[in-house]
Amino acid sequence: MAVPLNQMLRVGAYVAKKHLTGVKRYPLVLMLEPLFRCNLACAGCGKIDYPPEILKQRLSVAACMEAIDECGAPVVVIAGGEPLLHKEIEQIVDGAIARRKFVIVCTNALLLEKKMHLFKPSKWFSWSVHLDGSREEHDRSVCQAGVYNRAVTAIAEARRRGFRTIINCTLFDTAEPERTAAFFDDAMAMGVDGISVSPGYAYERAPDQQHFLNRRRTKELFRAVFARQGKGTWKKKWSFNQSSMFLDFLAGNQTFQCTPWGNPTRNFFGWQRPCYLLGEGYAKTFRELMEETDWDRYGTGNYEKCADCMVHSGYEATAVTQTIRRPWRAVAQLARGIRTEGPMAPDIPLDHQRPAEYVFSRHVEDALEKIRS
Ligand code: SF4
Questions:
Q1: pTM
Q2: Domain ranges of the chain
Q3: Is the sign of the CA dihedral 47, 48, 49, 52 positive or negative?
Protein backbone atom coordinates (compact mmCIF):
# COMPACT_ATOMS: atom_id res chain seq x y z
CA MET A 1 0.00 0.00 0.00
CA ALA A 2 1.74 3.18 -1.17
CA VAL A 3 -0.47 5.80 0.49
CA PRO A 4 0.12 5.30 4.25
CA LEU A 5 -2.89 4.07 6.22
CA ASN A 6 -2.84 7.03 8.63
CA GLN A 7 -2.94 9.45 5.67
CA MET A 8 -5.77 7.52 3.99
CA LEU A 9 -7.84 7.49 7.18
CA ARG A 10 -7.27 11.16 7.94
CA VAL A 11 -7.98 12.34 4.41
CA GLY A 12 -10.98 9.98 4.19
CA ALA A 13 -12.42 11.40 7.44
CA TYR A 14 -11.85 14.96 6.17
CA VAL A 15 -13.65 14.24 2.86
CA ALA A 16 -16.49 12.38 4.62
CA LYS A 17 -17.00 15.33 7.00
CA LYS A 18 -17.15 17.82 4.13
CA HIS A 19 -19.55 15.54 2.30
CA LEU A 20 -21.83 15.04 5.31
CA THR A 21 -21.91 18.75 6.13
CA GLY A 22 -22.88 19.60 2.55
CA VAL A 23 -19.71 21.49 1.58
CA LYS A 24 -19.65 21.41 -2.21
CA ARG A 25 -16.12 22.58 -2.92
CA TYR A 26 -13.16 21.97 -0.65
CA PRO A 27 -9.41 21.52 -1.09
CA LEU A 28 -7.59 18.24 -0.58
CA VAL A 29 -3.99 19.19 -1.30
CA LEU A 30 -2.43 22.63 -0.99
CA MET A 31 0.18 23.14 -3.70
CA LEU A 32 2.60 25.54 -2.09
CA GLU A 33 5.20 27.12 -4.36
CA PRO A 34 7.43 29.21 -2.10
CA LEU A 35 9.64 30.14 -5.07
CA PHE A 36 9.94 29.66 -8.84
CA ARG A 37 13.76 29.54 -9.01
CA CYS A 38 15.20 26.16 -9.96
CA ASN A 39 18.67 24.69 -10.41
CA LEU A 40 17.51 22.89 -13.55
CA ALA A 41 15.70 24.09 -16.67
CA CYS A 42 13.56 21.20 -17.90
CA ALA A 43 12.02 21.41 -21.36
CA GLY A 44 8.50 20.49 -20.16
CA CYS A 45 8.43 22.90 -17.17
CA GLY A 46 5.92 25.74 -17.14
CA LYS A 47 7.08 27.30 -13.88
CA ILE A 48 10.57 28.69 -14.28
CA ASP A 49 10.39 30.81 -17.39
CA TYR A 50 9.90 34.07 -15.48
CA PRO A 51 11.98 37.26 -15.59
CA PRO A 52 14.84 37.40 -13.03
CA GLU A 53 12.94 39.83 -10.76
CA ILE A 54 10.17 37.25 -10.34
CA LEU A 55 12.60 34.36 -9.93
CA LYS A 56 14.21 36.22 -7.01
CA GLN A 57 10.95 36.38 -5.06
CA ARG A 58 10.28 34.02 -2.13
CA LEU A 59 7.23 33.41 0.05
CA SER A 60 8.20 33.98 3.68
CA VAL A 61 7.63 31.32 6.34
CA ALA A 62 4.80 33.48 7.74
CA ALA A 63 3.14 33.75 4.31
CA CYS A 64 3.37 29.97 3.88
CA MET A 65 1.81 29.34 7.32
CA GLU A 66 -0.97 31.79 6.55
CA ALA A 67 -1.68 29.94 3.28
CA ILE A 68 -1.75 26.56 5.08
CA ASP A 69 -4.15 27.88 7.72
CA GLU A 70 -6.35 29.70 5.24
CA CYS A 71 -6.66 26.69 2.96
CA GLY A 72 -7.12 23.95 5.56
CA ALA A 73 -6.26 21.06 3.20
CA PRO A 74 -4.96 17.97 5.02
CA VAL A 75 -2.01 17.52 2.62
CA VAL A 76 0.59 20.15 1.71
CA VAL A 77 2.77 19.57 -1.34
CA ILE A 78 5.73 21.93 -1.49
CA ALA A 79 6.81 22.40 -5.08
CA GLY A 80 8.35 25.21 -7.08
CA GLY A 81 10.91 25.82 -8.64
CA GLU A 82 13.20 23.75 -6.46
CA PRO A 83 11.99 24.03 -2.84
CA LEU A 84 15.41 23.11 -1.41
CA LEU A 85 16.74 26.42 -2.77
CA HIS A 86 14.49 28.24 -0.29
CA LYS A 87 16.68 29.24 2.67
CA GLU A 88 13.90 28.61 5.20
CA ILE A 89 12.47 25.44 3.71
CA GLU A 90 12.95 23.40 6.90
CA GLN A 91 10.97 26.00 8.86
CA ILE A 92 8.15 25.80 6.33
CA VAL A 93 8.10 22.00 6.62
CA ASP A 94 8.26 22.07 10.43
CA GLY A 95 5.46 24.64 10.58
CA ALA A 96 3.21 22.55 8.33
CA ILE A 97 3.90 19.37 10.32
CA ALA A 98 3.17 21.25 13.58
CA ARG A 99 -0.24 21.95 12.03
CA ARG A 100 -0.68 18.18 11.53
CA LYS A 101 -0.48 18.30 7.76
CA PHE A 102 0.97 15.54 5.61
CA VAL A 103 3.88 17.28 3.92
CA ILE A 104 5.45 16.21 0.64
CA VAL A 105 8.50 18.08 -0.65
CA CYS A 106 8.99 17.71 -4.42
CA THR A 107 12.64 17.93 -5.37
CA ASN A 108 14.94 17.23 -8.29
CA ALA A 109 17.29 15.84 -5.60
CA LEU A 110 20.36 17.84 -6.66
CA LEU A 111 20.53 19.38 -3.16
CA LEU A 112 18.90 16.53 -1.29
CA GLU A 113 22.00 14.87 0.18
CA LYS A 114 23.40 18.26 1.22
CA LYS A 115 20.20 19.41 2.96
CA MET A 116 18.74 16.15 4.25
CA HIS A 117 20.16 16.69 7.76
CA LEU A 118 17.80 19.67 8.17
CA PHE A 119 14.76 17.34 8.18
CA LYS A 120 13.58 14.49 10.36
CA PRO A 121 11.88 11.27 9.20
CA SER A 122 8.24 11.34 10.28
CA LYS A 123 4.91 9.77 9.42
CA TRP A 124 3.86 13.29 8.40
CA PHE A 125 6.69 13.83 5.94
CA SER A 126 7.76 12.47 2.51
CA TRP A 127 10.27 13.31 -0.16
CA SER A 128 8.97 13.17 -3.71
CA VAL A 129 11.92 12.91 -6.07
CA HIS A 130 11.44 13.87 -9.69
CA LEU A 131 12.38 10.98 -12.01
CA ASP A 132 10.89 10.82 -15.49
CA GLY A 133 12.31 7.48 -16.62
CA SER A 134 15.54 5.59 -17.14
CA ARG A 135 18.92 7.34 -16.86
CA GLU A 136 18.88 8.33 -20.52
CA GLU A 137 15.22 9.44 -20.55
CA HIS A 138 15.39 11.39 -17.30
CA ASP A 139 18.60 13.23 -18.16
CA ARG A 140 17.06 14.13 -21.53
CA SER A 141 13.84 15.28 -19.85
CA VAL A 142 15.70 17.57 -17.41
CA CYS A 143 18.19 18.66 -20.09
CA GLN A 144 21.26 17.80 -18.02
CA ALA A 145 23.48 14.72 -17.84
CA GLY A 146 24.15 13.06 -14.48
CA VAL A 147 20.91 14.15 -12.76
CA TYR A 148 19.43 10.63 -12.74
CA ASN A 149 22.50 9.19 -10.97
CA ARG A 150 22.43 11.92 -8.33
CA ALA A 151 18.71 11.41 -7.74
CA VAL A 152 19.12 7.65 -7.36
CA THR A 153 22.00 8.11 -4.89
CA ALA A 154 19.94 10.64 -2.89
CA ILE A 155 16.93 8.29 -2.84
CA ALA A 156 19.11 5.49 -1.42
CA GLU A 157 20.45 7.83 1.28
CA ALA A 158 16.96 9.10 2.16
CA ARG A 159 15.70 5.53 2.49
CA ARG A 160 18.76 4.61 4.59
CA ARG A 161 17.97 7.47 6.98
CA GLY A 162 14.36 6.33 7.32
CA PHE A 163 12.57 8.95 5.22
CA ARG A 164 9.42 8.00 3.36
CA THR A 165 10.48 8.56 -0.25
CA ILE A 166 8.41 8.40 -3.39
CA ILE A 167 9.18 9.38 -6.97
CA ASN A 168 7.11 11.62 -9.22
CA CYS A 169 7.18 10.79 -12.88
CA THR A 170 5.70 12.80 -15.74
CA LEU A 171 5.14 11.04 -19.05
CA PHE A 172 5.30 12.76 -22.44
CA ASP A 173 4.52 11.45 -25.89
CA THR A 174 8.05 10.11 -26.21
CA ALA A 175 7.27 7.55 -23.46
CA GLU A 176 7.34 3.99 -24.67
CA PRO A 177 5.33 1.38 -22.68
CA GLU A 178 8.05 -1.27 -22.47
CA ARG A 179 10.65 1.22 -21.25
CA THR A 180 8.24 2.92 -18.83
CA ALA A 181 7.27 -0.44 -17.30
CA ALA A 182 10.96 -1.36 -16.97
CA PHE A 183 11.56 2.00 -15.26
CA PHE A 184 8.75 1.33 -12.76
CA ASP A 185 10.36 -2.08 -12.05
CA ASP A 186 13.69 -0.32 -11.45
CA ALA A 187 12.05 2.27 -9.17
CA MET A 188 10.49 -0.45 -7.02
CA ALA A 189 13.83 -2.25 -6.88
CA MET A 190 15.40 1.01 -5.59
CA GLY A 191 13.12 0.65 -2.57
CA VAL A 192 10.93 3.71 -3.11
CA ASP A 193 7.72 3.82 -1.08
CA GLY A 194 5.58 4.72 -4.06
CA ILE A 195 5.34 6.05 -7.58
CA SER A 196 3.32 9.12 -8.47
CA VAL A 197 2.71 9.23 -12.21
CA SER A 198 0.94 11.70 -14.46
CA PRO A 199 0.81 12.75 -18.10
CA GLY A 200 2.46 16.13 -18.68
CA TYR A 201 0.24 19.18 -19.06
CA ALA A 202 0.85 21.39 -22.11
CA TYR A 203 1.99 24.46 -20.18
CA GLU A 204 1.88 27.48 -22.45
CA ARG A 205 5.18 28.64 -20.87
CA ALA A 206 7.01 25.32 -21.43
CA PRO A 207 9.88 25.57 -23.92
CA ASP A 208 9.03 22.20 -25.54
CA GLN A 209 5.44 22.30 -26.84
CA GLN A 210 5.72 19.30 -29.14
CA HIS A 211 5.84 16.36 -26.76
CA PHE A 212 2.71 16.65 -24.63
CA LEU A 213 0.24 13.77 -24.77
CA ASN A 214 -3.30 14.11 -26.05
CA ARG A 215 -6.16 12.35 -24.24
CA ARG A 216 -6.47 9.29 -26.49
CA ARG A 217 -2.72 8.71 -26.54
CA THR A 218 -2.56 9.12 -22.74
CA LYS A 219 -5.12 6.37 -22.20
CA GLU A 220 -3.48 4.02 -24.70
CA LEU A 221 -0.07 4.61 -23.16
CA PHE A 222 -1.26 3.94 -19.61
CA ARG A 223 -3.13 0.81 -20.68
CA ALA A 224 -0.02 -0.51 -22.36
CA VAL A 225 2.12 0.29 -19.29
CA PHE A 226 -0.31 -1.17 -16.75
CA ALA A 227 -0.68 -4.34 -18.86
CA ARG A 228 3.04 -4.99 -18.22
CA GLN A 229 2.71 -4.78 -14.42
CA GLY A 230 4.25 -7.82 -12.69
CA LYS A 231 5.65 -9.21 -15.95
CA GLY A 232 9.14 -7.66 -15.94
CA THR A 233 11.97 -7.89 -13.45
CA TRP A 234 9.70 -6.73 -10.58
CA LYS A 235 7.30 -9.63 -10.26
CA LYS A 236 4.87 -7.92 -7.89
CA LYS A 237 2.49 -4.99 -8.32
CA TRP A 238 3.93 -1.51 -8.45
CA SER A 239 3.11 0.71 -5.45
CA PHE A 240 1.48 3.91 -6.62
CA ASN A 241 1.07 6.91 -4.40
CA GLN A 242 -2.29 7.53 -6.04
CA SER A 243 -5.79 6.15 -5.79
CA SER A 244 -6.72 3.14 -7.88
CA MET A 245 -9.65 5.11 -9.32
CA PHE A 246 -7.29 7.78 -10.67
CA LEU A 247 -5.07 5.15 -12.29
CA ASP A 248 -8.19 3.55 -13.78
CA PHE A 249 -9.12 6.97 -15.17
CA LEU A 250 -5.68 7.27 -16.79
CA ALA A 251 -6.32 3.91 -18.44
CA GLY A 252 -9.55 5.22 -19.97
CA ASN A 253 -11.98 3.36 -17.72
CA GLN A 254 -13.62 6.29 -15.92
CA THR A 255 -15.33 9.42 -17.19
CA PHE A 256 -14.29 12.13 -14.75
CA GLN A 257 -14.67 15.88 -14.80
CA CYS A 258 -11.75 17.62 -13.09
CA THR A 259 -11.83 19.18 -9.61
CA PRO A 260 -9.67 22.27 -10.09
CA TRP A 261 -10.23 23.52 -6.53
CA GLY A 262 -9.02 20.16 -5.14
CA ASN A 263 -5.33 21.21 -5.37
CA PRO A 264 -5.33 24.99 -4.92
CA THR A 265 -2.00 26.67 -5.60
CA ARG A 266 -0.43 29.49 -3.61
CA ASN A 267 2.67 31.20 -4.94
CA PHE A 268 4.22 34.67 -5.17
CA PHE A 269 1.38 35.96 -7.37
CA GLY A 270 -1.33 34.85 -4.92
CA TRP A 271 -3.89 32.03 -5.23
CA GLN A 272 -3.71 30.77 -8.78
CA ARG A 273 -6.88 30.60 -10.88
CA PRO A 274 -8.31 28.12 -11.61
CA CYS A 275 -5.80 25.35 -10.83
CA TYR A 276 -2.19 24.26 -10.48
CA LEU A 277 -1.82 24.02 -14.26
CA LEU A 278 -3.52 27.14 -15.55
CA GLY A 279 -2.65 30.60 -14.33
CA GLU A 280 -5.53 32.77 -15.52
CA GLY A 281 -5.46 35.40 -12.84
CA TYR A 282 -4.80 35.30 -9.11
CA ALA A 283 -6.95 35.81 -6.04
CA LYS A 284 -5.64 37.65 -2.99
CA THR A 285 -7.13 35.18 -0.51
CA PHE A 286 -8.15 31.55 -0.55
CA ARG A 287 -11.72 32.57 0.15
CA GLU A 288 -11.72 34.86 -2.86
CA LEU A 289 -10.37 32.02 -5.00
CA MET A 290 -13.13 29.65 -3.90
CA GLU A 291 -16.00 32.12 -3.97
CA GLU A 292 -15.22 34.32 -6.93
CA THR A 293 -13.77 31.93 -9.49
CA ASP A 294 -16.23 31.06 -12.24
CA TRP A 295 -15.49 27.33 -12.04
CA ASP A 296 -17.94 26.42 -14.81
CA ARG A 297 -15.70 28.14 -17.34
CA TYR A 298 -12.98 25.50 -16.80
CA GLY A 299 -12.51 21.77 -17.21
CA THR A 300 -12.57 19.41 -20.16
CA GLY A 301 -15.47 20.25 -22.45
CA ASN A 302 -15.67 23.81 -21.14
CA TYR A 303 -12.34 25.29 -22.18
CA GLU A 304 -9.94 24.57 -25.01
CA LYS A 305 -6.87 24.66 -22.75
CA CYS A 306 -8.40 21.82 -20.69
CA ALA A 307 -9.11 19.51 -23.65
CA ASP A 308 -6.12 17.19 -23.16
CA CYS A 309 -5.63 17.52 -19.41
CA MET A 310 -5.62 14.30 -17.37
CA VAL A 311 -3.16 15.48 -14.75
CA HIS A 312 -3.30 14.21 -11.15
CA SER A 313 -3.57 17.72 -9.71
CA GLY A 314 -6.91 18.09 -11.50
CA TYR A 315 -8.31 14.56 -11.31
CA GLU A 316 -6.96 12.84 -8.20
CA ALA A 317 -9.36 14.90 -6.08
CA THR A 318 -12.21 13.74 -8.33
CA ALA A 319 -11.13 10.11 -7.85
CA VAL A 320 -10.94 10.52 -4.06
CA THR A 321 -14.33 12.22 -3.73
CA GLN A 322 -15.93 9.64 -6.03
CA THR A 323 -14.46 6.91 -3.81
CA ILE A 324 -16.08 8.45 -0.72
CA ARG A 325 -19.39 9.24 -2.43
CA ARG A 326 -19.76 5.93 -4.27
CA PRO A 327 -17.62 3.46 -2.32
CA TRP A 328 -19.28 0.46 -4.01
CA ARG A 329 -17.89 1.60 -7.37
CA ALA A 330 -14.41 2.01 -5.91
CA VAL A 331 -14.58 -1.43 -4.27
CA ALA A 332 -15.70 -2.99 -7.58
CA GLN A 333 -12.88 -1.24 -9.42
CA LEU A 334 -10.34 -2.37 -6.83
CA ALA A 335 -11.58 -5.96 -7.15
CA ARG A 336 -11.32 -6.03 -10.94
CA GLY A 337 -8.08 -4.02 -11.08
CA ILE A 338 -7.15 -1.59 -13.85
CA ARG A 339 -8.72 -2.74 -17.12
CA THR A 340 -6.20 -2.63 -19.96
CA GLU A 341 -8.39 -4.06 -22.71
CA GLY A 342 -11.89 -3.58 -24.08
CA PRO A 343 -13.87 -0.45 -24.80
CA MET A 344 -12.96 2.75 -23.00
CA ALA A 345 -15.39 4.86 -20.98
CA PRO A 346 -16.98 7.62 -23.06
CA ASP A 347 -15.06 10.85 -23.12
CA ILE A 348 -16.44 14.34 -22.50
CA PRO A 349 -17.45 15.98 -25.81
CA LEU A 350 -15.45 19.04 -26.80
CA ASP A 351 -17.96 20.62 -29.22
CA HIS A 352 -18.99 23.44 -26.90
CA GLN A 353 -15.68 24.33 -25.27
CA ARG A 354 -14.77 28.02 -25.32
CA PRO A 355 -11.59 28.97 -27.16
CA ALA A 356 -8.30 29.47 -25.32
CA GLU A 357 -7.50 32.91 -23.98
CA TYR A 358 -3.85 33.86 -23.73
CA VAL A 359 -3.69 35.80 -20.49
CA PHE A 360 -0.61 34.47 -18.74
CA SER A 361 1.67 37.49 -19.12
CA ARG A 362 -0.70 40.04 -17.56
CA HIS A 363 -0.05 39.04 -13.96
CA VAL A 364 3.69 38.86 -14.68
CA GLU A 365 3.68 42.42 -16.04
CA ASP A 366 1.62 43.67 -13.08
CA ALA A 367 3.98 42.02 -10.61
CA LEU A 368 7.06 43.41 -12.39
CA GLU A 369 5.63 46.90 -12.27
CA LYS A 370 4.98 46.52 -8.55
CA ILE A 371 8.49 45.16 -7.83
CA ARG A 372 10.15 47.91 -9.88
CA SER A 373 8.13 50.69 -8.30
S1 SF4 B 1 -8.91 20.31 -16.91
FE2 SF4 B 1 -9.15 21.11 -14.83
S3 SF4 B 1 -7.20 20.65 -13.83
FE4 SF4 B 1 -6.85 20.46 -16.03
S5 SF4 B 1 -6.11 22.48 -16.69
FE6 SF4 B 1 -8.35 22.50 -16.93
S7 SF4 B 1 -9.15 23.34 -15.01
FE8 SF4 B 1 -7.03 22.72 -14.64
A1: 0.94
A2: 5-372
A3: positive
